[in-house]
Design brief:
The structure is a single chain. The chain is mainly α. The protein has one domain. It is 54% helix and 10% strand. It has helices at residues 2-16, 18-31, 78-86, 93-98, 112-115, 120-126, 136-140, 144-149, 154-176, 179-195, and strands at 38-44, 50-56, 103-105, 132-134. The strands form two sheets. A two-stranded antiparallel sheet has the order 1-2. A hairpin with a 5-residue loop joins strand 1 and strand 2.
Length: 196
């Protein structure tokens, strides 16, 4: 049932939101004509299998640096700031849901560097479900970029404070997820995004 809903919603969403996707792509291309519109990055998915996640690019082309992003990061473009605030940068992940690499709701997929730092006793549990576009931890840490901006060392704060709490929440979701719970997470996510 969960996979059927993922397929239906992602397919319908890609069709209905195609004008929005086209406008966003155009704005990104206009700001940096030679740079790609989409950002892809290898993440760890179901069963520990790597996959490429897709987002609209929000950083300057070729920007290196930390894998965590804080509010005010000078790598973020002007268009990118709006996309991040509204979460429009996440829309291409509907394609990842349609192709079965992600779900609408599930633990957010991490890069292997951070997966390796999840508590060992939780790792297999977290990776037993498809990663998602949103989940309870995404709502709890909706102001993560601001929290990181206030930290003396953003990456250390992410690794030692935020990541362990996220891992606990991911594992809790993997243990007890349900259709009703997923619908609540989707609703709560929409409410949070609408308020930003």
């Amino acid at each position: 049932m969960k996979r059927a809903i993922d397929l239906a919603v992602s397919g319908i969403g890609l069709v209905l939101l195609s004008p929005v996707l086209a406008v966003v792509a155009g704005l990104i291309k206009r700001s940096e004509p030679e740079a790609p519109v989409l950002f892809t990055q290898e993440r760890v998915g179901l069963g520990g299998e790597p996959f490429d996640i897709h987002k609209f690019r929000t950083m300057r082309a070729g920007a290196g640096g930390l894998q965590v992003t804080s509010d005010g990061d000078d790598r973020i473009t002007r268009v990118g700031r709006v996309l991040r605030k509204t979460k429009l940068d996440e829309l291409p992940q509907l394609w990842d849901v349609a192709r079965g690499r992600m779900s609408l709701v599930g633990p957010r997929p991490e890069v292997s560097k951070y997966v390796a730092q999840w508590p060992a006793e939780l790792r297999d549990e977290i990776l037993s479900v498809r990663p998602g576009i949103t989940d309870p931890a995404s709502i709890r840490f909706r102001n993560e970029s601001e929290e990181l901006a206030a930290a003396a060392d953003p990456e250390a704060h992410y690794v030692h404070v935020i990541l362990p709490e996220k891992a606990r929440m991911y594992a809790a979701y993997a243990r007890s997820h349900s259709l009703r719970g997923d619908l609540k997470v989707l609703w709560d996510t929409l409410v949070v995004v609408a308020r930003r």
